[in-house]
Each structure stands twice: as C-alpha cells, then as structure tokens.
Write a structure and sequence with these properties.
Elements lengths: L4 E4 L3 H13 L5 E4 L6 E2 L7 H4 L3 H4 E3 L1 H8 L2 E3 L6 E3 L4 E4 L2 E4 L2 E4 L3 E3 L13 E2 L4 H14 L4 E5 L3 H12 L3 E6 L11 H13 L3 E4 L3 E7 L2 E6 L4 E4 L1 E4 L3 E3 L2 H5 L4 E2 L2 E4 L10 E3 L4 E3 L7 H15 L13 E3 L6 E4 L7 E7 L2 E7 L5 E7 L6 H6 L7
Parallel strand pairs: 1-2, 1-9, 2-5, 9-22, 11-18, 12-13, 12-18, 13-14, 21-23
Antiparallel strand pairs: 3-4, 6-7, 7-8, 10-19, 15-16, 16-17, 20-21, 24-25, 25-28, 26-27, 27-28
Helix pairs in contact: 1-9
Length: 386
C-alpha cells in the first residue's frame, strides 16, 4: 500500500493545499494531522466576530468530520507530532510511527508573549491565533456578563484589528505599545498617527510610547504597570506582540531553518527531498509573507508540484487590507527600507509612497479615502517574489 501524503497542520495553509490537491487528484491518499480541532474556518474573520456578534460556532463553516468526508481525507485531530524520522519516512506520534510518502509542514506560527504571566492570571491573559483560541477568549468575555475592559498589548496588525473589533462590539479597549503610533511595520508615522486619532475618536484609549513592566492581580482586576509607572486596570488581557514560525519540529529533524521559518525553494521544497512547507512557517526563497494571498498562491503551486507538474511559486504586489473600519487602511510595505517616504493628502486621507533614491516606487500605504488607489499603485509596485 502506498504511504499517504501527510499534511501537518489544518489551518488555511493545510486545508487550502488539501482542496487544491483534491481538485487535481481525487484518489491519492491524504492524511491531515493537526494539534487543534481541525474545523474549517476563515482566519481573517476572527478579528471581525465581535462587531458582527458572531458566536465561535458561526465562524466554523465545516467540522473536521465534514472536511474529511468532503475531501476524502483522513483527519487526525488533537494529535501532536513529536518528531520526524527522515530515514524511516515516518512521523512520531507517541509510540506510533505514521509512514509518509511525501510530507508537507503547514504548522503555522505561534504568538510571541515576551513577558511572564503570573499563574493566577493564566485564564485571563490570551493570545488569538486560531479558532480554538477565539473560543476560549469569547467564553471569558461571555462569562463576565457585561461590557469588558480589555487591555491589548501590541499595536501591530493583529492588535489593531482586534482593538477595532472589540470597540465596535461594545467593549472598553486600551491599546498598549512601545511605539509612538499604531501599525509601525506597515505605516509611516504620520499615517499611524491618523489611525490612532481615529481609534481615540471611536472610544479607544491609547497608551503608546509605553511598554509593559509588570502584570499582576489587583483585587479582582488585572493590573498592567507600564514603563512610565502608570497603571492600566482590565478584566482581560489580549497579547498581540507578534508571531514566530513554528520551526521546532523541522529543526529537530535536521531541516534547514531560520528565524523567518523553514527554508524552502520556490517549489516549496525543504532541504530534505520529499518534505515541503507552506504558509506562515515557510520562508520561501528568503521571503516569509504571513498573509492570505501568498498562502493561497503557495497552495496552488505546491498542489501542481505534488501532482506531477513542478511549479515555482510567484508572489505578486499584493496590498494588505487592514480590518480597521474606524479608518480604512491599505499597505504594501517595501521589501527593503526606502530612501524616503513621500506623503500626500490631508487630515486622515493620506497616501504615502516608499521610494528609492532614483524615485522608483517600492511600496505604499494608504488611509481613509485614499485606499481607493490600491489597485493603481499595486500595478506600479514590484512583486514581492517575482
């Protein structure tokens, strides 16, 4: 019997690849092994659920059982892979040895929590990176039975989207970050300040330019002591301080990895033939792009490769649409630091152009009504991975 293709991970990358494979090959044995519930959901919707009043069950479009039935695959849920035996071509799951013909690692990225959380607060300090995380956070909000005071640590993409969503959902949000303006990796500071002003106008409290010094219980509340010795009091804390590719499994097997992920070529193949990686865990020809469009392009290219049509992935100039309705934001961050940011517009309707010394456009950022220029500017910007 032919060993199956095994995909480790059932997020958008793993399930997206399984769908693409089934569209090209209806018979090949495929097994998905996942540490979570394996339910099918659109991850970008996690940061819109509170605005829409959606229960976690509404975010899942199919259960793992329904996915397995629809795609004709084996789903191993709540199953943690402990090792990869490259010589024997097996996965180590406890005492079990699961053989694979080809192996795809779609293990995603784990939230970074750069500070210690007291044991007494572990049930009130959260990260949200998948549907199971969202379920736990949602349950904690519901258990309060009232408008919650939520402190969000981190003003990047995830922090800002959840801050907007929770504010729109009627909760009291305080956004804490050491940077002087939101979205520092996507927006030059004048555009970040415009977003911050919109957040304040929408009812949010900003504690920017301050880092977290201590986290402790203050009576029945959570106290966040900041670097200027000020105190933020909250019911719950959401940590959104970045993601780190889950490379431990690959590294322990001897695959080449780096801080940016599992190193793969343009065909998504790792340093050991027959093993591939895609999604947030993959560093493709030096590029790790943790966004939906690169993930989808990778899944399509890898499905072709795994069905006998070797294909190199291409990433276009795909702008990032930030889900902050308080002020629409679109960004195409440059792959390297620009010589300058040229900014046009007024008020909160701003366009910023990342340019080289010879005035070539290599990225852009847009806020307010200027987001309408995203298609025009994307056409003039070099691809992320051409």
């Amino acid at each position: 019997m032919t060993a199956p293709l095994i995909i480790v991970g059932s997020g958008m990358a793993g399930l997206g690849l399984a769908r693409q494979l089934r569209a090209r090959d209806t018979a090949r044995p495929i097994t998905l092994v996942t540490a979570d519930s394996g339910d099918d959901y659109a991850k970008p919707l996690l940061s819109t659920g509170f605005t829409k009043g959606l229960l976690p069950s509404r975010l899942a479009t199919r259960t793992a059982l329904e996915v397995a039935d629809q795609l004709g695959v084996v789903m191993r849920t709540h199953t943690r892979v402990e090792g990869i035996d490259i010589d024997a071509r097996t996965l180590c799951i406890g005492e079990e040895r699961l053989p694979w013909g080809e192996l795809v690692l779609a293990t995603g990225a784990a939230p970074l929590v750069p500070f210690s959380v007291p044991e007494t607060l572990t049930g009130r300090v959260f990260t949200i990176n998948d549907l199971d995380d969202y379920r736990h956070f949602h349950a904690a909000l519901v258990a309060l039975g009232r408008r919650a005071r939520v402190a969000i640590v981190g003003a990047g993409l995830v922090g800002c989207e959840f801050a907007n969503d929770l504010t729109a959902g009627g909760h009291e949000v305080t956004l804490v970050a050491p940077e002087s303006a939101p979205l520092p990796r996507l927006l030059p500071e004048p555009l970040g300040r415009a977003l911050g002003d919109a957040f304040v106008e929408g009812g949010m409290t900003l504690q920017l330019g301050r880092s977290l010094s201590a986290l402790e219980s203050v009576g029945s509340d959570i106290g966040l002591t900041l670097s200027d010795d000020s105190l933020v009091v909250a019911d719950l804390v959401l940590v959104a301080t970045g993601l780190r590719p889950r490379t431990e499994l690959a590294a322990s097997a001897g695959l080449e990895t780096a801080a940016a992920g599992i190193l793969v070529d343009r065909r998504l193949e790792a340093s050991v033939p027959g093993i591939y990686a895609l999604g947030d865990v993959a560093c493709v020809d030096g590029v790790n792009a943790m966004y939906v469009q690169p993930l989808q392009a990778s899944a399509k290219a890898l499905a072709r490769t795994l069905t006998g049509e070797p294909s190199a992935v291409v990433y276009g100039a795909w702008p990032i649409l930030v889900k902050t309705p308080l002020l629409p934001v679109v960004a195409m961050p440059p792959a390297r630091p620009p010589a300058r940011w040229r900014i046009e517009g007024e008020g909160r309707d701003l366009a910023a152009f990342a340019e080289t010394q010879d005035e070539r456009l290599i990225g852009f950022a847009l806020t307010g009504s200027c987001v309408r220029r995203k298609v025009e500017l994307a056409r003039a910007t070099p691809p992320l991975l051409g």
